[in-house]
């Protein structure tokens, strides 16, 4: 894979992560698990918050990339274990966003940020109830 491209795509990043985890990839990346990556994910999330608080947009861009890397690594590990894929993650969050925004994607009405938040919390509470009844 070329290293001096002008710009990489999301699909190319997915390929890079898969290559790092491949048999002939990086020994460190290959041995990572969901558990072993917890400190990395926490650290990267904290660095995003820090960049936001400092209003450091250049660093925010880099730190968001590091969080995205964590999402891709966890998704790759899960795919290798037959649990789920990155496409499943994308589908799940897309469905959640549509479900929790009926004022945008349905016929509910929410005109203020407070009404949106109330609606979100009501839907989230109903989802929890459903999960509790149908584990």
Key features of this structure:
135 residues; mainly alpha; Helix Hairpins; globular
Please give a quick description of this structure.
The chain has 135 residues and is mainly α.
Report on the architecture of this protein.
There is one protein chain. The chain has 135 residues and is mainly alpha-helical. It folds into two domains: 84 residues, MazG-like (Helix Hairpins); 36 residues, no CATH class. It has seven helices and no strands. α1 packs across α4 and α3 packs antiparallel against α4. The radius of gyration is 19 Å and the shape is globular. The termini are far apart. The mean pLDDT is 95.
* CATH superfamily label of the largest domain: MazG-like
Order of helices and strands: HHHHHHH
Shape: globular
Q: What's the N-to-C terminus distance?
A: 44 Å
Structural class of the helix and strand makeup? mainly alpha
Number of helices: 7
Q: What would CATH call the architecture of the largest domain? A: Orthogonal Bundle
Beta-strand residue percentage: under 5%
Mean of pLDDT: 95
Largest sheet: number of strands, sense, barrel closure: none
Tally of extended strands? 0
- CATH topological fold name of the largest domain: Helix Hairpins
Number of domains: 2
**In which range does the helix fraction lie?**
over 70%
**Regions with pLDDT < 50 over 5+ consecutive residues?**
none
